[in-house]
Design brief:
Distance between the termini: 40 Å
CATH class: Alpha Beta
Strand content: 5-15%
Number of helices: 10
Number of domains: 1
CATH topology: Rossmann fold
CATH superfamily: NAD(P)-binding Rossmann-like Domain
Structural class: alpha/beta
Shape: globular
Radius of gyration: 17 Å
């Protein structure tokens, strides 16, 4: 799909992958609606990309955001929150917020924006999932479940829609403030975090080339495929390698 002059809504646009995607989309000539909770950072990204900032908490304001953003040619469902630790210690409100922001809000936004895309006969939806949604990650079970939900939701939509493109991008570890906000920094030496700009390029490419699924970096496709084809072998390797 051509991005020049397309109206693009990006959720979670105030920092990280969302801000990098805003810059990449602006570079491709798109007109942007930028949604996020941090107004100061959102305004800065909007000034840089000539986007229209909309302060919104997706946990409660998906319908209001859709009403303000219409008409939308491209939805980039990027907003997400995390929480790390044993499930038995996870507060109820943290579970509810992860599901609301990471999954439910983007399902609602899609349902609200899709009729306009269908009526115009063009559009594209991109969900920023995670490798965690493809393989499951220890002490991030709820986060993994929300991202897995996005992946399967996207697959179902692909079977349902003919004129509207649906993509899912699955990043690995990305150098963003996400880990500080989830309450536990990234402590492993490998794999090294990749720049948010690399994910942003994959998102732009997914829209322009109508790609169903993109792993960033590409080698992450291997563990995801192994998890699907030989789950017991995958679990043995995870236990040995950590």
């Amino acid at each position: 799909m051509r991005l020049r002059d397309s109206r693009v809504l990006i959720t979670g646009a105030s920092s990280g992958i969302g801000a990098a995607t805003a810059r990449a989309m602006a570079g491709a000539g798109a007109r942007l609606v930028l949604a996020g909770r941090d107004r100061r950072r959102l305004d800065a990204v909007a000034a840089e990309t000539r986007g229209h900032p909309v302060t919104a908490d997706l946990a409660t304001g998906a319908a209001e955001l859709a009403a303000v953003a219409e008409p939308v040619d491209v939805l980039v469902g990027n907003a997400g929150v995390g929480w790390a630790g044993p499930l038995t210690r996870m507060p109820d409100e943290a579970i509810e917020r992860l599901i609301a922001v990471n999954l439910t809000a983007h399902i609602l936004l899609t349902r609200l924006l899709l009729p306009g895309m269908v009526a115009r006969g063009r559009g594209h939806i991109v969900f920023v999932a995670s490798i965690a949604g493809a393989v499951g990650v220890r002490e991030e079970a709820v986060y993994s479940a929300t991202k897995a939900g996005l992946i399967v939701f996207a697959e179902g939509l692909r079977h349902e829609l003919s004129e509207i493109g649906v993509s899912v991008v699955l990043p690995g570890v990305v150098d963003t403030p996400f880990f500080d906000r989830r309450g536990a920094p990234y402590a492993r030496r490998r794999p090294e975090p990749i720049p948010a700009e690399r994910v942003a390029r994959a998102i732009v490419s997914a829209v322009e080339r109508d790609l169903a699924e993109s792993y960033v970096p590409g080698w992450l496709r291997l563990p995801a495929r192994l998890r699907g084809a030989a789950p017991e072998v995958f679990r043995i390797l995870v236990r040995r390698l950590g």
